[in-house]
């Protein structure tokens, strides 16, 4: 393994009062602290990343093609490559953020696995998908306009080979108002326990408003059905964060 780039800083982006909180974006400042930010903000993130390769054991062979859509710094792609070090699988990792893509290329380049990981910048709603075995979207659909989500899932279904698997991880909004508020508070407690202050929690929430638009679990299930997936299930949930699998 070569030297990895510096993206291991502590997330202090919202630690100081801001007179006007700008909309959240995956810029260079976020990239510099992203691993710390997501692990301290998303309950179960590490478990999801480490569990995905275990799920994929039944779907991977030497000529497998995997799409990692909204790949950020490549944590999912690296987890898969690390789990199957001798298989020459192909992973196409795509992210919209130029800063993420450049740093992801540096991170992937620091390792030497048999898997071919091709990292590109692009809009996953517009990119053409080849016939594939696996598609993964982790905490990315929530940043895409609602009116584009169904078309994206339908495109994924069409690209998957029969028996292929789609893994979708998202923050969700409970349809029961009381439970929704309870889960939000539990999530905030999780962030407090991980060292975030009330100011940081409040300012980040403001930054994410109208940028991250979350759906209910039933909406996600409905979209998957409309895309064509007859077999789907939630395989992981921690508070209001879930990961689903759907099989073509």
TrEMBL record:
The gene is cmoA. Catalyzes the conversion of S-adenosyl-L-methionine (SAM) to carboxy-S-adenosyl-L-methionine (Cx-SAM). HAMAP family: Cx_SAM_synthase. Homodimer. GO terms for biological process: tRNA wobble uridine modification. It is an enzyme of class 2 (transferase). Its EC number is 2.1.3.-. The keyword Ligase does not apply. GO terms for molecular function: carboxyl- or carbamoyltransferase activity; S-adenosyl-L-methionine binding. It catalyses: prephenate + S-adenosyl-L-methionine = carboxy-S-adenosyl-L-methionine + 3-phenylpyruvate + H2O. Gene3D superfamilies: Vaccinia Virus protein VP39. The keyword S-adenosyl-L-methionine applies. This is Carboxy-S-adenosyl-L-methionine synthase. InterPro entries: CmoA, Methyltransf_25, SAM-dependent_MTases_sf. It comes from Agaribacter marinus. S-adenosyl-L-methionine binds at residues 45, 70-72, 123-124, 138, 205.
């Amino acid at each position: 393994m070569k030297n990895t780039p510096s993206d291991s800083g502590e997330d202090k982006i919202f630690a100081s009062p801001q007179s006007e909180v700008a909309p959240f974006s995956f810029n260079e400042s976020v990239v510099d602290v992203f691993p710390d930010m997501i692990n301290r903000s998303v309950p179960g993130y590490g478990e999801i990343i480490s569990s995905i390769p275990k799920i994929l054991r039944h779907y991977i062979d030497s000529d497998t093609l995997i799409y990692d859509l909204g790949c950020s710094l490549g944590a999912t792609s690296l987890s898969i490559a690390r789990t199957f070090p001798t298989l020459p699988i192909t992973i196409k990792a795509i992210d919209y953020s130029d800063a993420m893509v450049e740093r992801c290329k540096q991170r992937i380049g620091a390792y030497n696995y048999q898997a071919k990981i091709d990292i590109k910048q692009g809009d996953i709603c517009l990119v053409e998908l080849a016939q594939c075995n696996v598609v993964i979207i982790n905490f990315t659909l929530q940043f895409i306009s609602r009116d584009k989500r169904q078309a994206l899932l339908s495109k994924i279904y069409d690209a998957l080979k029969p028996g292929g698997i789609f893994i979708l991880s998202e923050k969700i909004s409970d349809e029961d108002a009381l439970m929704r508020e309870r889960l939000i508070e539990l999530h905030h407690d999780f962030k407090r326990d991980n060292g975030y202050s009330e100011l940081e929690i409040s300012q980040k929430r403001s930054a994410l408003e109208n940028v991250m638009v979350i759906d209910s679990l039933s909406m996600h299930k409905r979209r998957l059905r409309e895309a064509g997936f007859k077999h789907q299930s939630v395989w992981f949930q921690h508070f209001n964060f879930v990961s689903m699998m759907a099989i073509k």
